[in-house]
Amino acid sequence: MTLEARPQADRLVVAISSRTLFDLQESHELFEREGLDAYQRYQLAHEDDLLQPGMAFPLVRKLLNLNGLSTDAPRVEVILLSRNSSDTGIRIFNSIAHHGLEIVRAAFTNGSPTWPYVQSFGADLFLSSNAEDVGNALQAGIAAATILPGQAPAASKHDQLRIAFDGDAVIFSDEAEQVSKHEGLEAFHRSETERAHTPLSGGPFRSLLDKLHRLQAAFPIEDSPIRTALVTARSAPAHKRVILTLREWGIRLDEAFFLVAATRDRSCRRSAPTSSSTTSNVIASRPRSMSPPGMCRTVCRIVEQNMRTSVGAWL
Questions:
Q1: Residue 1 maps to a domain
Q2: Is residue 156 in a domain?
Q3: Distance CA 195, CA 256 (A)
Q4: Is residue 153 part of a domain?
């Protein structure tokens, strides 16, 4: 079945900005320094110059490669959203073709925000280097995250895509966090113990988790190209409600890390790419500034990067 013939509900759709897919730092710095006209002249003059992969390029390649691994698996589609004009965007499409990326749908907004088009394309995830676009998307209930612009990290030794999710306010709603925020950590643990058998509501990333689960289900567990994990500041006794909620949803996560705030914070600081790292990961977490007391969160970011082993392999 072709991509076009697949029902939308069966597809994982990821919308991504051009600055995260390719390294556009040089031209972006020119834009900030000399303005739009200089930027447009530069892009037209370099239309045939191929762009180098950006930070999200390895993630996009791994996602699209899933389409060739099983005819039974749901399809993955990547959509390009760019603040370029269609005229200056020719260089981007030239680079997409050169790198062999199966990206056929795109929107060029000529300087306008791109996030309003995410829902129009039915995207399950929006990745951008524009923090304002990401913030507006999150406020609209869209799973979105910021990727810092720059060159792609060194290629990993493994093709497996590893995806780690934060819990509260990410794959789950922030209902439990509100208890912690207004009543404190002790009240939070008491509430979670009392409501252990009451499933949590879904958060902005639940749809993405559902789609990934469907993709995983098409492959044997022992040989899956995708591996998922939960990395949360929850610890016992608050862990039980999370486990039972995922069971109620019918979602399987390969690994789960229930960490106290300080442990999780130290693990997060180990997340910087290193030349000796062995695998590529994606991290979905909540901004620290949006977190209540006692609940550790890191910068709201999904970053495809090489990581260390052990817990650091996920964080």
A1: no
A2: no
A3: 20
A4: no
Per-residue model confidence (pLDDT) at position 22: 92
Which amino acid is it at 233? A
Q: Edge-to-edge strand order for the sheet containing 12-17?
A: 106-108, 76-82, 12-17, 125-128, 144-146
Give the list of residues 6+ apart from residue 8 with CB closer than 8 angstroms, or none: 122
User: Per residue in 93-143, pLDDT tens?
Assistant: 999 999 999 999 999 998 889 999 999 999 999 999 888 999 999 889 899
Mark whether 135 and 212 lie in a shared domain: no
Collapsing DSSP states into helix, strand and coil, what is residue 271?
coil
Which residues have a catalytic role annotated? 166
Is a pLDDT exceeding 60 seen at residue 296? no
Report pLDDT digits (tens) over 241-270: 999 999 999 998 999 988 765 444 444 443
pTM (predicted TM-score):
0.78
| Cα–Cα distance measured from residue 295 to residue 298, given in angstroms and rounded to the nearest whole number | 10
Same-domain pairing of 224 and 259: yes
What's 30's domain CATH number?
3.40.50
Give the domain extent around 223: 161-313
* Mode of pairing for the β-strands spanning 279-284 and 305-307: antiparallel
Do the domain assignments include residue 2? no
Encode burial over 218-236: b for 16+ CB neighbours within 10 A, e otherwise. bbeeeebbbbbbbbbbbee
Does residue 216 share a domain with residue 169? yes
Q: Are strands 125-128 and 12-17 parallel, antiparallel or unpaired?
A: parallel
d(CA 151, CA 20): 9
